[in-house]
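Narrative of accomplishments. A recurring question from our advisory board has been how the design workflow behaves on a single, concrete structure rather than in aggregate. To address it, we present the structure tokens for one chain from the evaluation set, followed by the sequence designed for it. No filtering or post-editing was applied between the two.
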């Protein structure tokens, strides 16, 4: 009984303190606590974020149910834009090409930064030089890089790549002029241009791996491959899952390479979803079909959001092991 009586006042005091705390949460106390000054500091960021992020999203949703070319008055058409996009015979081609680009980038472009980062982390000398060389393509403006590689892909026997391959009696290859070779050529340039940023991320993550694990593995006679498979990859599991979803989202929105290299050709073999959106909006000099363009943009955004949600839920247990 004494124990209950000793506990009861404590419980009463806690309830009184909680009640007093709830009473204090008034607009006046919020202002006195610095809430107004915090809001003033946040207003510029909220304005910029709303003007350049939320307003375009809301405007896209509105335009997707309108027929407009931004010149004549817009008219409400409901879901006709979505129906027009779905029944466009070029949409399956664009989706297939985008998926093909993403698959090639995942097979060839995803492991390269990891391999390069592991090799650079094992280097005893000139590690900084290797990091600079790996990141250098990221610094080059994308348009300049594409135009440079376009000269490399010259299909004649005097082209840069064909000349190099001719030294070992290979080629010449048509590269961008062939429906078979065009998409792998775009993936090769895209991997070269974007791998440097991922290499830096992996190098930063590798610094967090406990070096004592490598030393213990060396004592046990583990090879380099065993160290990578048993120590490095498990330690980088969370980073690898994040970079994979980022790469999938990035490749699903590929536009620059097919636009500057081939404009979707030859024979629509490099036509991607974003390039199709661009054609809807700007393909007609007299005024594009912005309703269909925003409808397809909204469909792509919803697909990527649902895919990201499903991916994160499916890999949640893997990233926390």
């Amino acid at each position: 009984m004494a124990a209950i009586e000793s506990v009861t006042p404590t419980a009463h005091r806690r309830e009184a303190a909680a009640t007093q705390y709830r009473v204090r949460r008034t607009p006046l106390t919020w202002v006195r606590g610095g809430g107004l000054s915090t809001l003033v500091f946040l207003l510029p960021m909220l304005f910029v974020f709303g003007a350049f992020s939320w307003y375009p999203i809301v405007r896209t949703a509105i335009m997707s149910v309108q027929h407009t070319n931004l010149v004549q008055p817009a008219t409400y058409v409901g879901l006709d834009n979505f129906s027009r996009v779905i029944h466009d015979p070029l949409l399956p081609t664009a989706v297939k090409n985008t998926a093909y680009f993403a698959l090639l980038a995942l097979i060839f472009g995803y492991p390269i930064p990891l391999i390069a980062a592991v090799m650079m982390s094992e280097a005893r000398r000139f590690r900084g030089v290797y990091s600079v060389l790996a990141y250098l393509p990221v610094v080059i403006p994308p348009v300049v890089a594409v135009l440079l590689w376009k000269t490399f892909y010259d299909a004649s026997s005097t082209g840069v790549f064909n000349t190099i391959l001719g030294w070992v009696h290979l080629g010449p290859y048509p590269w961008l002029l062939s429906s078979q070779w065009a998409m792998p050529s775009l993936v090769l340039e895209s991997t070269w241009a974007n791998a440097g940023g991922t290499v830096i991320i992996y190098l930063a993550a590798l610094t967090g791996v406990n070096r004592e694990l490598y030393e213990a593995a060396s004592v046990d006679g583990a090879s380099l491959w065993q160290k990578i498979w048993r120590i490095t990859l498990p330690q980088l599991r969370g980073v690898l899952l994040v970079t994979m979803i980022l790469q999938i989202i990035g490749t699903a929105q590929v536009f620059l390479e097919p636009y500057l290299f081939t404009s979707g050709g030859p024979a629509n073999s490099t036509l991607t979803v974003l390039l199709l959106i661009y054609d809807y909006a700007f393909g007609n000099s007299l005024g594009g079909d912005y309703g269909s363009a925003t409808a397809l943009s909204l469909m792509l955004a919803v697909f990527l959001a649902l895919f990201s949600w499903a991916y994160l839920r499916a890999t949640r247990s893997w990233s926390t092991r």
